[in-house]
Amino acid sequence: MNRCFPLILLLLSLTLAREWSLNIEIAKETKFELGIGMQPNATDGFNPKVDYAAPPILPTGIFPYFPLEDNKYSYLKSLWRDIRAEMDSAKWSLVIFRGTSGVKITWASDSLPRGLFTIQNENMEELNGLYITDEDDTLIEIKYYKTESMELEPEGIKFKLDTPAQVKVIIATQNGKVADILELGYLENGIHRIQWDSSENTEITFFYAVIADGIQVAEGTFSPVMNK
User: Fold this and answer.
1) Is the pTM here over 0.70, yes or no?
2) Is the dihedral of CA 34, 37, 43, 44 positive or negative?
3) Is the pLDDT of residue 114 over 50?
């Protein structure tokens, strides 16, 4: 047996481990398949061998794409497949042109590569392969972190009110201790986003519960702003 063979397999496995790709389907009446990923020899610009340029925007219906700025290919402004250079973290901005509420973004849960993936700051592994857009979700952010222990960017608290209400938000640590209560007062119906400063707390992830007119209407986890 060739003694070099195990070494070749090891080198090959290490090379493959540095590459990953994820297919994402965007659908509402029409379906589109986009992709993201990383390869050691790719760049953040247009890579003809691995990236796919998006065609001109269709005259009707939604049209998803990844915006592109590359001086070498200045005539290309959008991609349907965006493969980046290998990094510890990255963010893809997915534009859904003429997007409305109810656009379905799906992916195969078992195809998520190793690491942490979020879509609109929600853990993609916990969403079971489906994210449905709200009415103002025309810019979707997909973030990748090589290791799950990496600190997340501040994502804040997001919730939706179906009707106007008096609102407060209860924030708690992972062991259940109340860290703060935010009295937000009277808010109109719609999507609301707030940030919370955790200067006096060292934890990265907190729980929150949104109380509207005495009834809990939302809950979740978030990573706070950390001003020091």
Assistant:
1) no
2) positive
3) yes
